[in-house]
Structures are given as C-alpha cells and as structure tokens.
C-alpha cells in the first residue's frame, strides 16, 4: 500500500522479516498472558557475607507461554515496557511476591526479605504508592520485609519526581535498592540526594573482580562509597568461592549468585529456608 512506502522494503529482508514476525507474535501472546495465568515467580536467595545465613530473596519473573515455551525476562520485559503492558505485569509480580513471601514467613515463622524489580513506567504511575500500600495490606507482609529495586537510569532523569517517589515509598517502611550499580551514568550525585538503602553491584564487576584489577578497583570503590554513606551493598552474580572471598575481604554485606543458589521455585525456596531455619 501507499502508506507503507519505501520503508516497508525492510520488512521483506529475510532476517529482519523473521524478527518483526517474532516481535508481533511475542507482543500478541504477551497481551493475553496475564489473563491466562502464564507468569510465575522464581526466587533467588541472598545471603549475609558475615554469617552465611539466608536473609532474603529477589523475585524474578518467568513466562511459560503455550505458543513460545519458557520465555526469560530479558526477552519480554523490553517489549512489555514498549507496549505499556509492564504496568499490569509489574503489579502482578509485586502483589504475587508479597502474597507468597508473607505466607512463607507465616509457615516458617521466620523473617525473610523480598526484593521486587520495578520498571520506570510502573514507578511513574499516579497510583504507584497506593498500589504498594494495598499489596502490603492485602498480603499482610510487613513493610520492612519488602524492598524495591530501581535502576540508576530512572534516578538520572526526572530526578525531582524520582526523589518524591522514593521518599513516599520509604515513608511506608519499604526499602529502596539501586540495581546494576556502576553500569549507568557517571553522575552519581543522586546517591547523596536520595537516601538509598542498598546498592547492588552489577555482576559484570563481580565476575571479573578476581582476575581484573580495574574491576576489583571499581568493586572496592563502590563498597567504600556505599559504606561511607551508610548504604548496604549486595554483590550480584557471585559464582565462585574466590569471588566470595574477595567480597568478604572488602566487607561487602550481602551476596547473591549461582554459588549460593540459582533462582528457585517457591517450593524450592521453602525447602531451603526451612532447612536453614532448623539449624
Ligand atoms: P537483574 O535484576 O539484574 O537480575 C539478575 C539476573 O541475573 C537474573 O536473570 C538472574 O537469574 C541472573 N543471575 C543470578 N545469579 C547469577 C549468577 O551467579 N551468574 C549469572 N551469570 N547470572 C546470574 P533473569 O532472571 O533472567 O532476569 C533478567 C532481568 O530481567 C533482571 O535483571 C531484571 O532487570 C529483569 N526482571 C526480572 N524480573 C522482573 C520483574 O518482575 N519486573 C521487572 N520490571 N523486571 C524484571
Ligand atoms: Ca534486580
Ligand atoms: Ca541486577
Ligand atoms: Ca541486570
């Protein structure tokens, strides 16, 4: 047709054509996924580097699509962001994580923190604070057991609005963590303006901190900076005992990664958490 014009030629390039088709398929499948109950959460343990004890988990979303199979978040979160679907998918993830971990706390009679990833679009919804409040109320999860993970990117733009959002969430008693720290923009003044509770060192630094002097230097600097501001540090993607040893020497507070556990099903988490409770 006339409207498509010249640019539509690109559609018929074999490689790109497949990509566009896949994206359309993904998008339409994603639109019905919530209604059809195709999402679930897995939970990756976080441990204290001081005591080795399980202290909390990060909730990570999975999509079991009848048409596409198991889809990892890296493959659908960007599309969900683009289409705005992330707002309802993210709300589902937050409410489900609160419900499941509140129940687990009751069953095991122990405390367990849960961290939930939030997208910028979700955070900028008008009723964002009310939504968190109602997720806490309806689940019965204590506010101080919930942590929300935000990316640096969000804090860089709209910093006035971000400041307000963060303060309102913290006023509820919920903790705020900065995800993938060190990978964003170099202007870090925001960490003095927002009273962040935790920094998560990106796994790209953690995975190289043993062999690469520069990564070790960045890791060392992030931990020192955070601690001087009384912010706790979580190292992500810890895979080897050597990495854990370096991080412990640097007084990093918490660690998360395949060395301790892969992301677990709720039942897998229940088994692990009840084992560590008995000890
Ligand atoms: P992230 O928040 O940085 O999550 C950490 C990712 O690293 C997870 O991948 C996790 O499975 C993986 N990982 C954990 N330990 C190790 C390790 O030792 N080695 C390696 N190589 N990888 C490790 P996953 O589950 O595929 O999640 C990818 C990203 O998707 C997350 O990155 C997060 O940005 C996003 N995401 C996941 N769930 C949600 C959600 O509910 N909402 C939103 N908005 N984003 C989500
Ligand atoms: Ca995260
Ligand atoms: Ca991360
Ligand atoms: Ca990441």
Automatic annotation (TrEMBL):
Top-level division of the source organism's lineage: Bacteria
Annotated EAL domain residues: 23-277
Q: What is the name of the protein in this document?
A: PAS domain S-box-containing protein/diguanylate cyclase (GGDEF) domain-containing protein
Q: Which organism is it from?
A: Granulicella rosea
Q: Which residues of the full protein are shown?
A: 576 to 854 of 860
